[in-house]
Amino acid sequence: MQTVAAFDRIGEENAFAVLARAGELAAGGMDVINLGIGQPDFPTPPNIVEAAVKALRDGQHGYTAATGIPPLREAVAADLHRRFGAEVDPGNVLVVPGGKVTMFAAILMFGEPGAEILYPDPGFPIYRSMIEFTGAKPVPIPIREENGFAFSAEETLSLITDRTRLIIVNSPANPCGGVTPKAEVDRLVAGLADWPEVAVMSDEIYDQMLYDGEKHVTLLDYPEIRDRLILLNGWSKTYAMTGWRLGYSVWPDGLYDKVRKLAVNAWSCVNTPAQYAALEALTGPQDAVAEMVAAFDARRQLVVDLANDLPGVSCITPKGAFYAFPNIKDTGWKAKALASTLLEETGVATVGGPDFGVLGEGYIRLSYANSQDNIREALGRMKAFLSK
Asked: Which EC class is this protein assigned (predicted)?
């Protein structure tokens, strides 16, 4: 059967393959601890769940506008203003079924044969997958351990050419937990003045998960690029709502109607009761968010201490998200082989660094979205294995 060649270029997110294999092993009786998948282990707060239930009982069963219900778009704008002082017109907010949808739309909008798109490496694997799907050339922005896993503005700007259409940045970052300092973001934005036709997608999905006094730097704070900035954010991580499939994006005037039409063609609208849950998440109590981040902070310190006690392993302290990215080069193992063997032989699920890009070799990702007891047990198993 003849298919379109572009579909042969689609990659995937291997964390889901690890999740599936971990499930198979657990079903077979193995005691599996999952430090692989990137989702909070907390339940969605009850007030959010009840808002969805109420919406169902109130008869909210039909289509909404493709862009999202107006109260939710207004709440997104108000939340961004409350947290950052950013002025956002609700008419520029698009509610989408998950953060990946914003990536898909932005990359599809700018990617085509002959174009180049810059993306973080190591970085979220869907960036590269979708760039290749469009036929554009993926150009990796190196995310280096010696730089605290933050991007370098100078290095990023040096990669721009006349063919560059879009730059993707991510802070706090998956998979490394890096947070890019404001001074570095300032330098990037200043340098982009020389490239007025290059758009920017800022993935800020972990914007409330920062530690050690770090403050989130949103690209919404830079009026000089607002006419070409696409902001990606959502509810999955902050409110433990990964399975609800809810995200939002902020688009400039010149692009908004294009993405609105894509929404009409591709998903019609986002699940209606889920939108009312998202509204409650933004406008209701925020205590659960603070409690979850405090728990992640304690786990972060634990996983770094234990990882640095593993033979042949070193681990810098992540500043954001809920991932550590330990260096395993001195173990003698290749990263994907180590991750696979740890799962099969010890029941500890991790993700090999190359699943996040070619520069991920020599590292594995540990998600500390798991209990302290499980983290201790998992790292203990890893230590016993690497000590053999």
From this structure: transferase
Q: Which tens digits make up the pLDDT trace of 6-32?
A: 888 888 777 778 878 888 998 999 999
> pTM higher than 0.90 for the full model?
yes
Decide if 90 is inside a domain.
yes
Q: Are 60 and 273 in contact (CB under 8 A)?
A: yes
Q: Which 3 state secondary structure label does DSSP give 200?
A: strand
pLDDT in tens, 337-380: 999 999 999 999 999 999 999 999 999 999 999 999 999 999 99
Beta bridge partners of 131: none
Q: Which of 283, 306, 321 is the last residue of a domain?
A: 283
Report the Cα 206 to chain-centroid distance in Å.
7
Are 235 and 295 found together in one domain? Answer: no
- Residue range 38-56: mean pLDDT, rounded: 96
Residues contacting residue 83 through CB under 8 Å, at least 6 positions apart = none
Q: In total, how many domains does the chain have? A: 2
Domain boundaries, position 14: 5-44+287-387
Give the C-alpha distances (Å, rounded to integers) separating 147 from 137, 152, 185: 25, 8, 14
Percent with pLDDT over 90 in the chain: 92
Cβ burial of 3 (10 Å; 0-12, 13-18, 19+) is: exposed
pLDDT at 190 over 90: yes
Residues 314 and 270 occupy one common structural domain: no
For every residue of 314-383, DSSP letters joined together read B-PPP-BTTEE--B-GGGT--HHHHHHHHHHHH-EE-EEGGGG-GGGTTBEEEE--S-HHHHHHHHHHHH
Q: Which of 235, 267, 283 is the last residue of a domain?
A: 283
Are 250 and 92 within 8 A, CB to CB? yes
- Residue 271 sits in the same domain as residue 204: yes
For residue 121, is pLDDT > 80? yes
Cα(292)–Cα(36) distance, integer angstroms: 18
